[in-house]
Amino acid sequence: MEKDSLFTDVKIAKSNWEITHQDNILLAGSCFTDEIGNKLINNGFNVMKNPFGVIYNPLSIADLIIRVAENKAFTEKDVIKSGEFYYLFAAHGDIRGETEEKCLDLANSIVKHTRDFLKNTSVIIITLGTAWSYWYKSNGYLMANCHKVPQQEISRRLLQIDETENSLNNMIKCIKSSEFKVKHCLFTVSPVRHIKEGFYDNKLSKAVLHLAIDKIIKNGKNCTADEHFADYFPAYEIVMDCLRDYRFYARDLVHINETAVDYIWNEFSQTYFSASTREINEKYYKLYLMKNHRPFNPNSEGYRKHLQKIEQLEKELSAR
User: Fold this and answer.
1) pLDDT (tens digit per residue) in 86-100
2) Which of 7, 21, 80, 286, by CA, is between 20 and 30 Å from 39?
3) For residues 55 and 5, which has the higher predicted lDDT (pLDDT)?
């Protein structure tokens, strides 16, 4: 049996557009967003990732980006108290405060900071994790995170394809405003399985996400002006149909490991970076490794020369 017959390669066409180091990139979505975001940062790109923390469902992601674009502040009605802290219905549990005021101050400072970044963002990368949504029964608010609220106070339902598509389309319309410089919105579906939802429910969820994204992409292709605005990168397919082996997973057998992330990053690089951009990436990653080197003796001559090499490489990259 030939080696190739033991390996299913996911063929990805070279993108019609490219990401360069001149692009500002905003990433939002699931924990997989952090993995790709860290790769971009370590390779020298100007990135903001998950400013409101890890968010899994598409409605919450879209609502947050629309809020930022419209410069809409959070108010008291957006806050819930759980345990010792105040949280936002719309954000991850990292966005919290010991008082309602502190929670809102933090949240609204993130809105402002993210909007400042969005004004010069050219690429947005959205990673959708699940189509299962959770709603606070007493007011009907969508919860991006359950914040350890008692289960009996929350209802759960699967988002529909049309409402997912409409929510993401509303987000796209908002960021395409003349006030912003966004040229491309790249969608991915997280390869991380939400098995706490159940294996069958996880499949239903991923199917909803794929079908909604597919409708957005196809509708964009039917309009010449929007043909390349929305795009899809098959991170999910790479893991499910190519790597499909537990050696590419972390010990929890749910999240993918560093080897898998590296493989996906290489495919991403081949798809969206030119050869010259990949060369620059190598230099930035070399700089990243050099800066993270921990010397045995910080006062040694060898380490002094190491710092000089860092400074020299920084100058070279800044002079590009």
Assistant:
1) 999 999 999 999 999
2) 7
3) 55
Q: Which residues contact 289 (CB under 8 A, 6 or more apart)?
A: none
Contact between residue 127 and residue 30 where contact means Cβ atoms under 8 Å apart: yes
Residue of 197, 171, 203, 156 whose CA lies nearest to 59: 171
CB distance 180 to 189 below 8 Å: no
Q: Look-up: residue for tokens 């990053």?
A: 265
Query: Which residue, among 200, 87, 201, has the nearest Cα to 144 in the 3D structure?
Result: 87
pLDDT > 70: percent of the chain: 96
Radius of gyration (C-alpha) of the chain in whole angstroms: 21
Please give, one letter per residue, the 3-state secondary structure of 29-43.
ECHHHHHHHHHHHHC
SS3 146: coil
Q: Using H for helix, E for strand and C for coil, what is the string for 247-276?
A: HHECCCCCCECHHHHHHHHHHHHHHHCCHH
**CA 272 to chain centroid:** 16
- Tell me the C-alpha distance between 191 and 248, whole Å: 11
| Alpha-carbon gap, residue 278 to 122, rounded angstroms | 19
| Statement: residue 224 has pLDDT above 50 | no
